[in-house]
Amino acid sequence: MPHTTRGRVPRRRAAPAGAAALAALALTATACGPQRPAGNAAGAPATLARPAPPSSPGDLTGWKVDDWARFVADSAFANEVAPGFWSRARMEAATGRPTPQAPRPTDRGDAPQDAPPAPVQAQPHPYGPAAAVVGRLFVTAPGGDAACSGTVVSDPAAPGRSNLVYTAAHCLHDGQGGAWLRNITFVPGYNRDGQAGRGKPSTDQQVAPYGRWTAVRALVSPTWLKENGTGAHDQYDYGILRVRDESGSGRSLEETVGGSVPVWFNAPREQITSASAYGYPTEKPYDGTELDHCDAPAAPARLSFDRTRPPMYAIGCTMTGGADGGGWFIVKDGKPNLISVTSIGSRDPAGHLAGPSLQDQAKQAFEYFGKNVR
User: Fold this and answer.
1) Predicted structure pTM score
2) pLDDT for 41
3) Is 89 exposed, middle or buried, given 0-12, 13-18 or 19+ CB atoms closer than 10 A?
4) Residues 6+ apart with CB under 8 A from 259
5) How do residues 41-52 score in pLDDT, each as one tens digit?
6) At what angle do helices 65-74 and 360-372 cross, to 10 degrees?
């Protein structure tokens, strides 16, 4: 079905075969009907209060459960969202959270890396049940309302009933010296032009077909919070949310959208022979109204700022700000697995993106969060 967006040349939707990663999703539940939001709105920004520092930059191997508990408590996450805050009009007006500019090769120090990959043109992804695991993440930043992207991921502690969303750390917190963003709300399967091509206006239920999900707990990399700028800390640019249905349905996010995607931590790099990145780009020439994806035709390149940390993945992709935090998928055993999220990229023009390789630190954080942070 043709899809038209404001301010853009209409583009024909890519055939499902061009987006094999999410097309391979085996749904584990039947998606319910559209949810009506029950609430949200402005909460006071929470400052980051003396987190327990890593024993050395990037090294959390000595952290125990008590260290993670102290970090989560000290990070002072709060997210008061009043009923009706994220109206359809407000979501449409949100700007994309800017993708941090990847430094030029001469700025990268002596860490080993590959040449930037060739650009890959982003394509629209067909809407459907499998794509509902991807959505837009709406936040209020110091500069105003903004949007990123996120993915519903599997929760080993609650099989079939996950309420976890994976995204980029910079989509949740401003980093060293900054604060948590406010009014954080996830809208899975966002589709502003839900009736495009049928001559009918979209309703609120079509824009947010699976409801609005308020973040109730969050965690980002302690190393990412300890450092600033663009560079080594982006090698840990990941964040996790636990969300709650604003309609009070009592159903989990996974049950509502019909599935989730497992995170493949410590994936052997030699097994990552291609990857597909998904998100809702908002900066020109995009406008955030549709789900786009880039299918990398080759193994991701390496991008590294600190040789002691896992090198980032880099793929050709023309998606812009707003796609930040969107999942990168590969097909493993016939099903999509999340291996990264969009973190930084080239700008003016957009040609490639980079995301963290989710190794030991990310695995440790996720396991602690899933088991202990409710």
Assistant:
1) 0.85
2) 33
3) exposed
4) 25, 26, 27, 28, 29, 129, 130, 132, 133, 152
5) 333 333 333 344
6) 80
